[in-house]
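Tutorial handout. Part one gives the primary structure; part two gives the three-dimensional structure as tokens.
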Amino acid sequence: MMPPVFSVLAAAPAVTALIGSSPVRLYPFGEADNTTTRPYVVWQTIFGSPENYLGNTPDIDGFGTQMDVYAKTAEDAREVAETLRDVIEPVAHITAYNGEFRDPITRDYRYSFNVDWLVNR
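Part two.
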């Protein structure tokens, strides 16, 4: 009952080339801290629901996730976000680009976007 965010992204060499492979710097929301090497990615489920049918049990679950890339430079944040996009689009749908931000305390750059997943049960 979870979207396959980690399994899809950690299996992509283009992604691990940017955010590492040991460990893969891809964390559930709230798991990365200020000592995490940049760039890194955090994600969270923002909604989920089964695909309900009349007369049948659901065979697919839908999930909306938010992906946030954190980096020391805007260029690095954009490069990671573009790479994630290229890996995600064959298996899920990017539904929103939420903008770019700069954290006032850490001075990290953040690029945020949403992804909708349909996951077979």
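Part three, for discussion. The CA atoms of residues 10 and 16 lie 6 Å apart. The helical segments are 5-10, 13-19, 74-88.
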